[in-house]
Automatic annotation (TrEMBL):
Annotated keywords: Kinase, Membrane, Transferase, Transmembrane, Transmembrane helix, Two-component regulatory system
Single GO cellular component term: membrane
PANTHER family documented for this protein: NITRATE/NITRITE SENSOR PROTEIN NARX-RELATED, OXYGEN SENSOR HISTIDINE KINASE NREB
Residues covered by the Histidine kinase/HSP90-like ATPase domain: 282-357
Record-given protein name: Sensor histidine kinase
Organism per entry: Lysobacter soli
Signal transduction histidine kinase subgroup 3 dimerisation and phosphoacceptor domain span: 182-243
Residues that span the membrane, as ranges: 12-29, 35-52, 59-79, 91-121, 128-151
Molecular function in Gene Ontology: phosphorelay sensor kinase activity; protein dimerization activity
Amino acid sequence: MNERVRSLLQPLNLAGLFTLVAVGMAFRWMPGHLLPWAIALLATYAFLLLSCEIWPRQAWLRPVQLTLMPIIALTLVWLDPRPSVAPVLLVVWTAVMATATPLRITALAVVVADTGFWLVLRDDGHRAPLTVVMIHIGFQLFAALCAWYAVSAERARDRLALVNADLLATRALLADSARDNERLRVARELHDVAGHKLTAMTLNLRALAADPAFAGRPEIAIAQQLSTELLSDIRGIVQAMRDERGLDLGTALRALAAPMPRPSLRLHVAQSVHVTDPATAEAVLRLVQEALTNSARHADADIVQVSLDCEGDRLRIRVEDDGQVRGAIREGNGLSGMRERVVAAGGQLAFGRSERGSLRIDASLPA
């Protein structure tokens, strides 16, 4: 299913639309000359309710949405202030407000909106405006708390998923490091034990071949040849085991990015990349992790491209997303921490803009 359609079909949106349909059905008791205005206002309210899901990248749209929704609701109450269902729209707005702003701001906005609600009822001559407002405040508080707890649970789930991904990535690096250490230990054992004894055996066979009593025996010559070939094979195996050491950065980075719905990771690791130092691998892991977080929070990116390559004895890392950098590039806590980590690992880091205006990160570390 398309991501935008899935976003529109979230439970909060469906509940809000169901409420709007019920409010619209109640308009049939409204005076006829006010009905077109009421329908137009309700349609505008519905559009605002879904607008941020339709255009999620428009940062200016959320403040407009949260400002106009209560104004439309109060306008509908003003058009027909007798007991009606229009104040329910304030409850829907409160739920939306609680998902987008801190509870303190939500509470302040609700106080302002309900003060306007009370003034409308009082000016219409309602016998108990405060009682009606208090009843709706109760519904608004309930909606705000439900929405806030739902958002808090979702954020806690996302944080837990990121922590779990971090643990999986770190575990992958530790497993690779443990395998490398074990491979190195076996290589040393082969070289020190088997290689030493084969060398001794070769020397003894050479001494036997020089003895006149065994000179010319084909068995001695074959044994010499086999021991020499076996010693050469063991040395080749030991060298190959040393050369094959390296941490699987690709698996670790993919595990790190897996739980993030946006942005997605496009990773390219050149065949020449051969990292054996866990500290260097950890620096690469944290650099990409911070880049993914930065692209999600500030650039609203959908894709982050990460490429790793080797130039001589340096590991080159380039990170670039498809978002947009707004204003000058300023090193906040995230980017400053990224630089400090890379420099501590003996590397260099540079920030710049790509041709399409997105943030580009170029780093180099000792390979």
